């Protein structure tokens, strides 16, 4: 039977690949988007995850269309990179509000239905940067590291209800953003990756598909790196 899946920030990049992978697996997939148009072939709901009322309204739209959310992928995120000495308090707090508190908002809303149903999957998209750290990304790294503690706390809290909570930590992935980096910077990055290449969005998506499946029913509180070995040991 198909499940209802919601992917936040699912209109492009990693989020879109995850949404399409879950749809291929047979799930009824909805995605949130903040600007532009929803992706073709997927049910899109406009949502700013920094707004609790907007999150609630988006969930209601999905529930009215497909039923309660059974698989939640908290993927939406932003970056506002800057050296600490130059970083504004607003740029620090706004990144945490989207990346970490946004995940809290959607997880809290999704858990209502999951607890009633006594089952569900929550997958948080973190980053290797949250494990390794990165100069000029103190706000982003803090938000992504926070997802690990958040996810593991939820795994302990919700396990008795048959709800699993796991974290995926992508490394450098081929996206529009990485494609814009100068060639010298791309070469430098790949030198630090044991597999000597970027990952693909599809490789992240397939990991999420596995964690959302029955095959992963006994996996919870895990941090799964998909980073070519970049963050090993963390």
From TrEMBL:
Active site residues of this protein: 140 (proton acceptor)
GO terms, molecular function: 3-oxoacyl-[acyl-carrier-protein] reductase (NADPH) activity; NAD binding
Catalyses which reaction(s): a (3R)-hydroxyacyl-[ACP] + NADP(+) = a 3-oxoacyl-[ACP] + NADPH + H(+)
InterPro entries named in the record: 3oxo_ACP_reduc, KR_dom, NAD(P)-bd_dom_sf, Sc_DH/Rdtase_CS, SDR, SDR_fam
Annotated transmembrane regions: none
SUPFAM superfamilies reported in the protein's UniProt record: NAD(P)-binding Rossmann-fold domains (SSF51735)
PROSITE patterns: ADH_SHORT
Binding site for NADP(+): 9-12, 75, 140-144, 173
EC number from the UniProt entry: 1.1.1.100
Ranges of residues in domain Ketoreductase: 3-176
Role description: Catalyzes the NADPH-dependent reduction of beta-ketoacyl-ACP substrates to beta-hydroxyacyl-ACP products, the first reductive step in the elongation cycle of fatty acid biosynthesis.
Subunit structure: Homotetramer.
Family: Belongs to the short-chain dehydrogenases/reductases (SDR) family.
Protein name from the UniProt record: 3-oxoacyl-[acyl-carrier-protein] reductase
Protein encoded by which gene: fabG
């Amino acid at each position: 039977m198909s499940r209802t899946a919601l992917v936040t920030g699912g209109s492009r990049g990693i989020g879109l690949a995850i949404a399409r992978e879950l749809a291929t697996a047979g799930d009824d997939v909805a995605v949130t988007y903040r600007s532009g148009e929803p992706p073709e072939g997927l049910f899109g709901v406009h949502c700013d995850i920094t707004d609790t009322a907007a999150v609630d309204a988006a969930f209601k739209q999905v529930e009215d269309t497909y039923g309660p959310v059974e698989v939640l992928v908290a993927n939406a995120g932003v970056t506002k990179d800057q050296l600490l000495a130059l970083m504004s308090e607003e740029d620090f707090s706004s990144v945490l509000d989207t990346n970490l508190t946004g995940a809290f908002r959607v997880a809290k809303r999704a858990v209502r239905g999951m607890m009633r149903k006594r089952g569900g999957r929550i997958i948080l998209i973190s980053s290797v940067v949250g494990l390794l750290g990165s100069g000029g990304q103190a706000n982003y790294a803090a938000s992504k590291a926070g997802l690990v503690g958040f996810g593991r706390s939820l795994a302990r809290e919700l396990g008795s209800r048959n709800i699993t909570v796991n974290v995926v930590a992508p490394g450098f992935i081929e996206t529009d953003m990485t494609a814009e980096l100068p060639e010298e910077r791309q070469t430098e990055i790949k030198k630090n990756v044991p597999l000597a290449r970027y990952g693909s969005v599809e490789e992240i998506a397939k990991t999420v598909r596995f964690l959302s499946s029955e095959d992963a029913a006994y996996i919870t509180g895990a941090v799964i790196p998909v980073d070519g070995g970049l963050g090993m040991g963390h």
